[in-house]
């Protein structure tokens, strides 16, 4: 019998609280799968909501070739977002001590203009988006050295640790997202570049994937939800004393200094 999902969620919560990373669950049970892992996520989400956090949306992960290759997992994953994950750029430095091995990565953020509960077409996904912006996602794997398999990273809410959201623009005012250029610079030096097409060929395809995931699990997101489409480039470690600039043409820039 697989490890009880509630027990795994509690073990991950303990790792977050104590900042002591874990060996991956799949090292002891390689049969653990995505279904088990999303059950762990459900336990984690229920515990966080019971402790007073509010659900604010969802995040996709591993939607770009750069991330899939780096992390060795070749399919997109979905996590949940609560208000506790929303950060102002100015507080990231102060939050550093609360993480284990944080990294930062550039993302496209959507705010939904309508609820999503069934699988959308690409055209429906576009129409479901009210506004679009740039986000900086902070990830912090609760597994030693970010070594995990699909079931581990899903159980760990896809490494979610924080979100800095930039200005939002009405979806209709933004050029074709697949064409937008993105850079991630550290201390003034460009480390990573990509276009929006890095995300499943078209960032709206991430929303299609999410809608299929929600439909399959009988889950839904209300209008107003925040959705992160997944990193366009590989992530950079967040190191004290460094400055990070994330830019997506037409969407904006986020500066974070730690
Ligand atoms: C997994 C989460 C990846 C993304 O946007 O690709 C992710 C990880 O890299 O630890 O959030």
From TrEMBL:
Residues 101-256 form the Fumarylacetoacetase-like C-terminal domain. Keywords: Hydrolase. The keyword Cell membrane does not apply. InterPro entries: Fumarylacetoacetase-like_C (IPR011234), Hydratase-Decarb/MhpD_sf (IPR050772). One of its GO terms (molecular function) is hydrolase activity. Pfam families: FAA_hydrolase (PF01557). It comes from the Bacteria. The keyword Transmembrane does not apply. This is Fumarylacetoacetate hydrolase family protein. It comes from Nocardioides daeguensis. The lineage of its organism: Bacteria, Bacillati, Actinomycetota, Actinomycetes, Propionibacteriales.
